[in-house]
Write a structure and sequence with these properties.
The complex is a heterodimer of chains A (263) and B (288). With 263 residues, chain A is α/β, with parallel strands linked by helices. Chain A has two domains: 2-88 and 164-259, Rossmann fold (3-Layer(aba) Sandwich); 96-163, no CATH class. Chain A contains nine helices and ten strands. A six-stranded mixed β-sheet of chain A has the order 6-7-8-3-9-10, with helices on both faces. A four-stranded antiparallel β-sheet of chain A has the order 2-1-4-5, with helices on one face. In chain A, strand 7 (166-170), helix 7 and strand 8 (198-203) form a beta-alpha-beta unit. In chain B, helix 4 (71-102) runs parallel beside helix 7 and helix 9 packs parallel to helix 10 (221-230). The chains are: A alpha/beta (263), B mainly alpha (288). Chain A binds chain B through residues 65, 67, 84-87, 90-91, 93, 95, 97, 99-101, 103, 105-106, 110-111, 113-115, 120, 123-124, 127, 139-142, 144-145, 162, and chain B through 164, 166-167, 169-170, 172-177, 180, 184-185, 188-189, 191, 264-265, 271, 274-276, 278-279, 282, 284-287.
Chain lengths: 263, 288
């Protein structure tokens, strides 16, 4: 299953997301958050956006999600220009932002409630997603009864419940401890592989970016821009031990070099 | 089984629990205070005119509740007044608070008036309300409304305004409409702080009712206290005051109960209970 998904990724040439000269300025043009970004992201691929703070990686993600509008150029998803939040684009944040008064499964059902009346089939689907993220026994727990890692798992299930095939993740496990983050990263790879979604993942951790992605977009600040795209050749599934291999660390060194001395 | 039973009973019989000892200590202190009062009153250290003996107060309780039974009518009148005024004041407070909270423009213009209202003792307006509405139930309810309007108003306003920015962004990314954001995020999020306002309002409503009854002495516990004090029947006046103590306590506990059910997620036992209920509700769909 995973192998097939990996092959599909590499083989597919249908473009899901593309950007043409996408730029964003704040404070009336005096602050350039992102400068002329051009990119094409094929269906089913996993993209990491990596760089120091101020490199525009979160800005780029928000532009693709439609939460903010570009100052120049435009973003296209599935052939149509992005003008605002859409049902085929799902977003996950650094904080789980669950609703305290809802159980885990009710939180997962939230995206469905926005579009239609929840059916029994929807409830079944949400329950299956919670099983997929390993929370079978916590489906009726409230957020305050869950650990930080579990809350992010619920947020991941909620993201999948949207049914979007483009998943945007803004440092989703950034607030968690190292061990939990590593485990969730492995599961994230497995899950998006199973679902076959196109994924864009923002991080400031170089090793994490390489480990997860098919292509790493290395971004540099002042002004924020995409400095280079590094292709990651390793096949899937990728064991954790990959991170200690020579080839892996050569890629890390390559990304560091692009980022320059200030990183 | 038998062994464990005997160890259990031994544990209980071997000494009083911390809780039991605490209750006994409190009861001991309370009874000592009452006894000192009784002795002081009999020995003439306390003026019996203003500090009636506990035994006399107890007899007054018997008089007004059982023998004459006249307190019931007034108790009923006061409670109707409290709840009518509280309902009117808190509905107005929550409604206006939400309205102002949702409208940034209105919020900016109303702010100076809120500050002025906050600085003014609301009860000072009571005589004006009576002048405007005349003696009778409407002016009494209006006085209570006035004293218990403010806390729900301010709390609803701040609850609605202070919505977590990250959650708002989540709702935006899900393409939620204004109405959906209001119903599924803003209002539920504000419930605990609104409930805190309601608790303050209900306590204020009881005080407001007494002031209203002091001014218009036709019925209610407040007027009864006034009548007894004028007749120098201090024991019965005290019985009325202690009646209010009990009433205040019950109102406070009742409100706490409502709060624990409406804002259940703020209280640990509520989570377990509601979690179980929601699991039962969804059981059928999940085939479990």
């Amino acid at each position: 299953m995973n192998m097939q998904a990996a092959e599909a990724r590499v083989g597919s040439d249908e473009i899901v997301v593309s950007g043409r000269n996408v730029g964003k300025t704040f404070a009336g043009g005096s602050v350039v958050a992102l400068e002329g970004a051009n990119f094409e992201i094929p269906k089913g691929s996993f993209i990491s956006l990596v760089g120091p703070s101020g490199c525009g990686k979160s800005t780029l993600l928000r532009l693709i999600s439609g939460l903010i509008e570009p100052s120049s150029g435009d973003v296209t998803v599935h052939g149509t220009k992005v003008t605002g939040p859409r049902q085929d684009i799902g977003m996950m944040f650094q904080k789980a932002t669950l609703l305290d008064w809802r159980t885990a499964i009710e939180n997962v059902l939230l995206p469905t409630e926005m579009t239609r009346k929840v059916t029994k089939a929807d409830q079944k689907h949400a329950s299956d997603l919670l099983k997929l993220v390993g929370l079978k026994d916590f489906r009726f727990a409230f957020p305050s009864q869950l650990s930080g890692g579990m809350q992010q798992r619920v947020a991941l299930a909620r993201l999948l419940q949207t049914g979007a095939d483009l998943l945007l993740l803004d440092e989703p496990f950034g607030a968690l401890d190292e061990f939990t983050r590593e485990r969730l990263n492995v599961e994230l790879m497995r899950i998006v592989g199973e679902v076959g979604a196109t994924t864009i993942f923002v991080t400031h951790n170089i090793a994490e970016a390489i480990y997860l992605a098919d292509h790493v977009y290395v971004m540099t600040p002042r002004p924020g821009r995409i400095a280079s795209v590094v292709d990651v050749p390793f096949e899937r599934p990728r064991p954790l031990s990959l991170q200690t291999s020579l080839e892996f660390n050569q890629l890390v060194a390559q990304v560091r070099e692009i980022l320059g001395e200030d990183h | 089984m038998a062994v464990s039973d005997s160890t259990l009973s031994e544990g209980a019989g071997g000494g009083l629990s911390l809780r039991q000892r605490r209750i006994l200590t409190h009861a001991g202190i309370f009874l000592t205070l009452i006894a000192l009062w009784e002795i002081g009153s009999r020995a003439g250290w306390l003026d019996p005119l203003f500090y009636p003996r506990p035994s006399n107060i107890l007899r007054s309780f018997w008089l007004i509740y059982v023998q004459n039974g006249n307190v019931w009518y007034h108790l009923y009148a006061t409670m109707i007044l409290v709840f009518a005024g509280f309902a009117a004041g808190s509905i107005l407070g929550v409604g206006l608070g939400a309205l102002v909270g949702f409208n940034p423009l209105v919020r900016r213009f109303i702010k100076p008036y809120v500050i002025v209202l906050e600085a003014t003792p609301r009860i000072a307006v009571a005589p004006l309300l009576i002048a405007a509405l005349g003696f009778g139930a409407p002016s009494k309810v209006a006085i209570i409304m006035l004293v218990c309007f403010f806390a729900p108003f301010i709390n609803t306003l701040s609850g609605v305004v202070n919505v977590d920015e990250d959650r708002l962004e989540l709702f935006r990314s899900l393409g939620a409409s204004k109405w959906q954001t209001l119903r599924k995020l803003v209002l539920p999020d504000a419930v605990p702080v609104i409930m805190a306002g309601e608790r303050l309002a209900l306590t204020a409503a009881l005080s407001g009712a007494l002031v209203a009854e002091f001014i218009q002495r036709n019925e209610g516990i407040g007027s009864l206290i006034l009548v007894y004090t004028r007749n120098l029947n201090m024991a019965s006046a005290f019985a009325c005051i202690f009646t209010l103590t009990i009433l205040g306590f019950l109102i406070f506990r009742g409100m706490e109960w409502v709060d624990h059910h409406v804002a259940f997620w703020k209280h640990e036992p509520g989570l377990e209970r509601v979690g179980r209920r929601r699991r039962r509700k969804m059981k059928e769909a999940l085939d479990e």
